[in-house]
Fold Glutamate dehydrogenase.
Amino acid sequence: MLDTAATGDPIAASPLEDALTQLRGATRALGYDDGAYELLATPRREVTVGIPLRRDDGTIEVLRGYRVQHNFSRGPAKGGLRFSPGVRLDEVRALAMWMTWKCALMDLPYGGAKGGVNVDPATHSLAELERVTRRYTSEILPVIGPERDIPAPDIGTDERTMAWMMDTYSVNHGYTVSGVVTGKPVSLGGSLGRATATSRGVAHVALAALEHRGVHRDGATSAVHGYGKVGRSAARFLIEAGIVVVAVADQHGAVYEPAGLDLDALDRHVDTTGSVVGFALGAPLEPELLLELDVDLLVPAAVEGVIHVGNAHRIRARIVVEGANGPTTTDADRVLANAGVYVVPDILANAGGVIVSYFEWVQANQTYRWSLDTVEARLRERMLAAWHFVMETAECRRVSLREAAMTIAVERVFDAHRSRGLYP
């Protein structure tokens, strides 16, 4: 299922502009010069490929694919692959940069990368998507690998996509290379707990943020914007913790029930129809209006830029926990800060996926599987350790959580640069 929803108002800044603005603020706070900024802003490698696809009806379609490796000073590049008709190079550049900061913030031995193909999975057959995946993998084969760049699922891709990538890479190398991707099926070396890791991480941080802001979890209200592979499980984990989920949205629409949605019934409806639209036990709602509900917790878990300068002044949630990458623009961030909205940034809130991807990579290298209890305990430990460090840094420096997270991450990456030195 695509993890998308309405992308918001066209006046929203581009993801790359937001990513670069965040980086500029962090380098200034750290006292770095323009050279350091340029070094950290510039991707180390970018690959653009043409992907010829023979459709099932025999016609030929040529797609465009990208892989951007933003940084590998701390280790091999790491980042997802998305299939979406709106994929563009600047978007992939921004997402790769955010992955660099996310990995550094979580103290993982990775740099950041991202990939994308401008294809709509909803309009292509499974056989066509397999051909797209295998051709894309073949085109970027020289720059990926378990010690170079390790892709993972993202919007429009899943564990089956990763299985096709692993098989294509392995066939070309003449032996099975399990560690070339993460987010694989467990039967092919995937990690237990990986499928819901991002959602669990979001829930861990959301509960910590509620406690920190003095909001008791029992009976606290929340809304989840994006009901795909992040938002759907995040909503479930929040309910299990005692929080009332009053509204959810996907790319087609939203449903609202002030007494709390019945997620068991909703999930059966979504599995049958493919959308939350038409759910009988909730009132229909425009996805954009879900963002403006008066709730304790808002989880934007869809795509970039859904909270922007055009709607930020109408956000009434006390706490925003970013399940998606870049859901809040820089201008909107300022509006929310002035309104006293507590924003937990994406590079902290949604890092659960890359943490368990790291665990999967480690297990592949060890050829030893960890138990689900071990994976989830270590995920919780890392998420809460990062949360406390960022929160305490923010309070000590009297800055936002985003500014604190960015300065921590950027400093770690630049320290790695300086330690390694510049190759003459």
